[in-house]
Amino acid sequence: MTCKENTNFCILVETCGKIVDILHQENNPFDIAIEKGMQLDQVLPIFHGYFPLTVECLSLENMSFENFSGNILLQTNRLETEICFFCKPEEMKQWKDIYQRHNQEKLISKMLTKSMDTMISNDVLNSLGFMGFEKNAQGFVLLGNIPNWFNKIFPDYNYSSNKFVLEDIFPFLEVFLPDVFDMFDTDIENKIYSGLWTEVSPGGDEVILQATAINNKSDKYIFIESVSERNPQKHADLQKSRELSLKHQQLLKTEEALRELLKSREQFISIFAHDIKSPLSGVYSLVDFLMEDENFTALLNEEYAELLGVIRRNLSTVFDYTNQLYDWSNLNFAKMDVTKTPTNLRQMFNDVLVSFSDKVHLKDIKVELDVPVDIMVNVDAVFFKNVIQNLINNALKFSYHKGLINIHVQEQEQFIQISIADTGVGMDKTVMESIFKYDTKISTQGTDGEMGTGIGLNIVKRILDLHGATISVESELQKGSTFIIQLQK
Amino acid sequence: MIKKKICVLGAFAVGKTSLIERYVKSVFSDKYHTTIGVKTDQKDVEVDGEDVRLIIWDINGEDDYQHVKPSYLLGASGYFLVADGTRKETLEVAEGLQKLVFNTIGNKSFYLLINKSDLMDEWEITENALNLLSEQGWKIIKTSAKLGQHVDDAFLGLCRSILQK
Q: Is A208 touching B (CB cutoff 8 A)?
């Protein structure tokens, strides 16, 4: 026989009850050592009379004895019986609470169906922790002994008479008793419960109480019990849930304050970047105009001409930076909605490449444009152009002189795949893994010392997210990088 | 000696129990301890020459876990609504409870206590909101159970108001 799955402890016995094997000996829950050759019912008397088993399988549920709580399964074949012990102490504990409550109520009902003189003993009420009162013509008469919790709350209470004015002792009951008396006035068998209330002992200990009134024909009773003794966890749970609730409220407020702070920061950056763009553009155009003017450049010596070139390059970098900052601040919190329209992708690439013609020329880079002439994509043209600009700008920035950039667009079944590959410096694995993360800003100089903002790919990712598109990268150091966009058709 | 029942109501953790303990026992604990159901206390006071025994009902804080049972309000001569100045939502709870009390026991004397005046820098409840309630005839007192500020005044004021009715 093999031991059943999930068995914590298992004993194999012969049909006569002699132990022939023990499995999972290390889990033996009993105080005594169980060994082969022993007679089972002598070691565990609970099994006395079971052997030989008259049925093939017998399950004993919710058993508690010695150190064991759980279920037992006995299954037999002609030669031997396997006794499997399934330890379930936690489950049994829960069941015990339920049974305890159920049996208490059953016991009270039982007591009320018979004469009080014969049934209710002081010990029974006391052991249940109830303070019981019977209502008669004179008022409420105490049944049984005073429970411990009452003595704890009212150590000096003078109960020379066993007649009690309940609302004087427990003011809370003044709102419960009117309902109780209404019920007592009827002949209907019924019971009602009060709400919970708390009494405090002189030592500061709290006792949570609840009253139950029972109308049983001519017998009328009120029982008061300590809920905190029956269910001490309840108060602790409520306390904890409220403390958590307070913390949650505080966290929500902190989150709101932080959001406000971020919002005003984004607004500030957006306004600043927007307002500085125009004057910067004006200065850049002016420098550009001067550098293109042969009459002016003829007046400059070599050193000044070079300085002017440096000014133009730096202005160009600052201008790019401002543009990206503006885009980034507007994209944060998805302030902008994308408006998709059918757009010719080839045309878009052409437009972008024209704007980069100076840079392409400067590094003497060959650009291969492998894009079908008539390919249409459904994108926000302004945003998507920004994506293309950023990726081509990166490819140019990290390409060596006389490098190659290949732009390839392929229409597939469900999406359009765009890849932009360069033969530049490439990236290591660590950089590849973090370049699209929103909280990462990596700025690396280009092969000609070009500066960047480090937020270009962040913008690309946000725009593509807004389009429901994906981007990935393949790269190898000193061999180049390929950025691949997959755009749903 | 005449007995008067007064109820203390409000959202959870606004300081209802602390206000009562400050008033009855002159003690304060910073530790939050939730009240289950109802806790009753009493204090004998003399108001304008009259001896009064105040039966104070500290009723569990209103939230998703525990609700104020209207039957607890029966027999009350007056009540306090308590809000926490640092949590503006507790004022809304107090306003809701005022409606419940009015619908249950009618027009009784009451004060709105804005507790935690020792944390005035962190208050979310604005003077504007309080002015609106004042205009509706609500009597409002800013209290601190921690420092004992205006706690006795509030109980004395409510008691006087009850006796004058």
A: yes
Decide if A198 and B35 are in contact by the 8 Å CB cutoff. yes
Residue type, A161: S
- CA-to-CA distance for A166 and A176, rounded, in angstroms? 11
For testing contact with chain B, the best of A181, A193, A197 (most B CBs within 10 A): A197
Q: Alpha-carbon dihedral of residues A450, A455, A461, A467, nearest 10 degrees?
A: -100
DSSP H helix total and E strand total for chain A: 16, 19
B66 touching A, CB under 8 A? yes
Domains in chain A, ordered, with CATH? 9-115 (3.30.450), 118-230 (3.30.450), 236-332 (1.10.287), 336-488 (3.30.565.10)
Residue A118: the pLDDT is 43
The tens digit of pLDDT for each residue in A347-371 reads 999 999 988 888 899 899 999 999 9
Cross-chain residue pair A196–B36, CB shorter than 8 Å: yes
> What does the alpha-carbon distance between residue A274 and residue A276 come to, in Å, rounded to a whole number?
6
How many CB pairs below 8 A link A and B? 68
State pTM to two decimals. Answer: 0.54
B73 by Cβ neighbours in 10 Å (0-12 / 13-18 / 19+) ranks as buried
Cβ–Cβ gap B38/A172 under 8 Å: yes
Across chain A, mean pLDDT equals 83
Q: Is the CB of A242 less than 8 angstroms away from the CB of B63?
A: yes
A88: number of CA atoms within 13 Å, CB side?
Answer: 17
| Element counts in chain B: helices (H) and strands (E) | 4, 6
Q: Average pLDDT for residues A423-431, to the nearest whole number?
A: 88
Percent of chain A with pLDDT over 70: 86
pLDDT of residue A151 exceeding 60, the answer is yes
Tally the residues of chain A: 489
DSSP string, A66-107: TTEEEEEEEEE-SSEEEEEEEE-HHHHHHHHHHHHHHHHHHH
ipTM for the whole complex: 0.77
Asked whether the CA dihedral A163, A167, A170, A174 is positive or negative, the reply is positive
**CA A212, CA A224: separation in Å to the nearest integer?**
6
Tokens linked to B42: 């009493």
Inspect the interface and report whether the beta carbons of B36 and A172 lie closer than 8 Å. Answer: no
Mean pLDDT of all residues in A171-196? 89
User: B31 to chain A: nearest residue by CA?
Assistant: A243
